[in-house]
């Protein structure tokens, strides 16, 4: 009986697509997402966010204005590109990501989380040597490296984007809990609102082409720039 169990485990150790998506959406993923507020801390400093309602509205707006039209739209195009190893397409998408990071903090986040996720993939042998080498040469940004990780799950594209969006939502909610500050019940209400909004954001991302994809959010860029010299802060962005 023990031998049979051992054989079963050794020949089928890869997690299912659903488990891989849950894993990638987890805040426990060691890529440093918890250390960034993506402008939220600066918005709190400026008085734009001050309670549960304003924090929820801020994060929901960010989901639709920046995530769905920028990073999630990149993911929607990069995941299938990884599956067929279209290196030219991957390089073009990665170059676009780098060009649209408007502040030093935004660029730092994209680069640091991309490198950390690539290390995670390498350490757990979650990708082939060819894929890892290609990702390392881009050089890796978070959206392109996450697209590689999601492509390995072989899950439907909309589900992959939903998982990534929910992981982002959890990190932003945790940032709000720490910085506003808010209680755990407020955080759960924020997540409930975001969970209702994510499917629409995913559909937006899926239907954007290169001409429609954008990263235009002047207020966020201004707040990110101010945060770089903010006197008191607990987040890196």
How many structural domains in the coordinates? 1
SS class: mainly alpha
Compressed to H and E, one letter per element, the order equals HHHHHHHHHHH
Percent strand equals under 5%
Q: Count the strands?
A: 0
CATH architecture: Orthogonal Bundle
Task: Provide structural commentary.
The chain is mainly alpha-helical and 237 residues long. The chain has one domain (36-227): Urease accessory protein UreF (Orthogonal Bundle). The chain is 70% helix and 0% strand. It contains 11 helices and no strands. It has helices at residues 2-11, 17-25, 40-45, 52-83, 87-99, 104-123, 129-137, 142-151, 157-179, 184-206, 218-227. The longest helix has 32 residues, at 52-83.
